[in-house]
Design a protein that fits this description.
The chain contains seven helices and 48 strands. With 616 residues, the chain is mainly β. The protein is elongated and about 130 Å long.
Length: 616
């Protein structure tokens, strides 16, 4: 450079700074006449050769100077870009708030927000990244379609033309929906992503407005958004909002987040209706919980299940009670109200099926379990939304040998029944009742039943063969042998179904005198049962006989000898199908038993003890 700087004024009379203002061709034309005027070239005869030598030297100098000058300008502290650098926008179209990359060579390194800037048609953009070959910026909120320029100090580079587009909703599916369900927004220019999830981020969050609520979408694409409608949303407009954060006046981050809002499309929210249950056999009580049904049913209002009209037991503004009709089929549950049909779900009609019972043979009072599926609920024939409110069993029943059994538990997959007093050997049949609607759609025009057989039950009659010993002292064990004794029933009277119904109806529960269903009696006084099997019973001799029993004016001082009895109790249903008749007994007498005066306390135990005297 020193030789070059020395040669310039000698040849052209120009400093290197001024020389940089000329192109090589213009520099050659400028320097040649200057050199001829300021140099003594000798005689005229030698001027031609000297002139040729000057031009050759000057051409070589121009090439060297131009190369060095370009290198010097390109390496000026690494901050200034080449004026001839070609820059490209990626992408060249986008929405406000989108990230755009400017790709090219010689962009230099980032010095400050004041030195390094990017303008979208004069509007400054927020810089996110600045490298020597790529710059990333956010499209400003006020950006308009036009040129994009990169400013590096006083240098200005053209990056191309950017087209600003705005979000637009074309349609929403479905146009009417229940809160809590998903709606699909179809449109264009939503952007490729919803951005960060944190609403407190400096760049903002793209979201959807449903009425007055801000909703974070489930899925987001440039032409499609899927969003869950909140449970507290109301009917109104739905719009897409794109967040954008611009730089502050000094170029630093960040100005308050602003939103570009799409066009608004109306979304109708219909009240949520819950159908419970959606599976069950015919006769099942189905309740529609919701609002806006109307205080009473009008002409044309109906519920269909699988295309068959269901009898309406109750219709109120917040609940509708229907029963699965006798001829129902699996299919949609449709609410028809004021000429509009609304599908609320699919109901699956199940067929009751009994697969077995245990035990298959036993005496009266035995608890028999019936196994199977799809028995439904027991007391669901009423008009209230809740089965226990009216406890209406309708025609649901179990028969043993043609005699109605006493229902103890009724579940969808098993039923427990007590063998009634009037039971006979024969098939065990589970029957469910189901209605059909009346002409006006109310409940009920006709009732029918569906039945399933669980198997054959054999009623056993208890028989006593022997007992030993025939006499014994207090607390001694007496063994009774025989057959058909069944199992020992520990359940007390308080658990019978009739009392359960009374509890739901909040009636006072009163226990009868006899709360046991299997007993051993010594002269009509109950004994403690040690063990009880189908062929053998062991009982302990009671105490009260030898001490006497009775009441004032009627007292038996000695009950040591009397009949030894075993008995089993059970009930029958009342004629109207409700529970139950007073308890009835099957009684067997084993023989006469004598309680010996053995095992009694020592008489000295009852004498006064000296240590208990007050004179001590």
């Amino acid at each position: 450079m020193k030789g070059l700087e020395a040669g310039v004024p000698a040849l052209c009379g120009l400093t290197p700074e001024k020389t940089a203002c000329y192109s090589p061709s213009s520099l050659a034309s400028r320097c040649t006449p200057v050199a001829l005027q300021t140099r003594a070239w000798g005689s005229r005869a030698t001027q031609g050769s000297q002139h040729m030598m000057v031009k050759t030297y000057l051409s070589r100098w121009i090439i060297v100077f131009g190369t060095v000058l370009l290198v010097a300008l390109g390496s000026d502290q690494g901050t200034d870009a080449s004026p001839s650098a070609r820059l490209e926008l990626q992408p060249a179209t986008g929405v406000p708030g989108a990230t755009v990359s400017i790709v090219g060579k010689g962009l230099g390194h980032f010095k400050s927000a004041q030195v390094n800037r990017v303008l979208f048609r004069g509007v400054p953009a927020l810089i996110q990244r600045w490298d020597a070959d790529v710059v990333e910026v956010k499209v400003p909120f006020k950006a308009q379609t036009g040129p994009v320029e990169v400013l590096i100090g006083k240098k200005k580079l053209a990056a191309g033309t950017f087209s600003v587009v705005y979000p637009k909703i074309l349609s929403i599916h479905p146009p009417a929906i229940e809160p809590g369900h998903a709606v699909e927004i179809v449109g264009e220019h939503f952007g490729i992503t919803a951005g960060p999830r944190d609403p407190n981020t400096m760049f903002g969050v793209n979201d959807v407005m449903v009425g007055n609520l801000v909703v974070r979408p489930r899925r987001w694409k440039d032409d499609k958004i899927e969003v869950d409608v909140p449970a507290n949303a109301t009917s109104g407009d739905i719009a897409v909002r794109l967040a954008s954060s611009d730089p502050l006046p000094d170029g630093s981050c960040c100005a308050p987040v602003q939103h570009t809002v799409s066009n608004a499309v109306s979304l109708k929210l219909i009240p949520t209706v819950q159908v419970d249950p959606l599976t069950g056999p015919v006769g099942t009580k189905v309740v529609l919980f919701g609002q806006g049904f109307g205080q009473e049913r009008t002409a044309g209002d109906l519920i269909t299940i699988g295309g068959h009209e269901a009898p309406v037991a109750q219709w109120s503004d917040r609940a509708i009670v229907v029963h699965v009709p006798l001829n129902a089929e699996t299919g949609p549950v449709v609410l028809s109200r004021q000429g509009q049909d609304r599908t609320l779900g699919t109901f699956t009609v199940q067929t009751p099926k009994a697969t077995g019972l245990s035990p298959a043979s036993a005496p009266i009072g035995t608890l028999v379990r019936i196994h199977g599926e799809h028995f439904g609920a027991y007391s669901e024939s009423g008009a209230t939304p809740y089965n226990y409110t009216d406890f209406n069993t309708g025609q649901n029943r179990v028969e043993i040998g043609g005699a109605p059994a006493v229902i103890y538990r009724w579940h969808d997959d098993r039923i427990d029944v007590w063998v009634p007093f009037s039971a006979k050997s024969g098939p065990v049949v589970v029957t469910r009742g189901a209605p059909k609607p009346a002409a006006d759609g109310s409940c009920c025009g006709e009732r029918g039943t569906v039945s399933t057989t669980a198997g054959t039950f054999t009623l056993v009659v208890p028989t006593i063969e022997s007992f030993t010993p025939a006499s014994a002292g207090l607390d001694e064990v007496v063994t009774i042998k025989g057959s058909g004794f069944g199992s020992f029933i520990k359940t007390t009277e308080a658990t019978q179904p009739g009392l359960g119904e009374g509890a739901f109806k909040r009636n006072q529960i009163e226990l009868g005198e006899n709360v046991s269903r299997t007993e051993v009696l010594f002269n009509n006084i109950g004994a403690i049962v040690v063990s009880w099997t189908d062929t053998e019973i062991k009982a302990r001799v009671p105490h009260r006989h030898l001490f006497g029993i009775g009441k004032p004016g009627q007292f038996n001082a000695d009950l040591s000898t009397g009949p030894l009895i075993i008995r089993r109790g059970s009930w029958d249903l009342l004629p109207d199908g409700t529970c139950c008749t007073p308890k009835k007994w099957v009684t067997l007498e084993a023989g006469t038993f004598t309680i010996e005066a053995k095992g009694m306390p020592d008489q000295s135990f009852f004498q006064s003890r000296p240590e208990g005297s007050t004179n001590d």
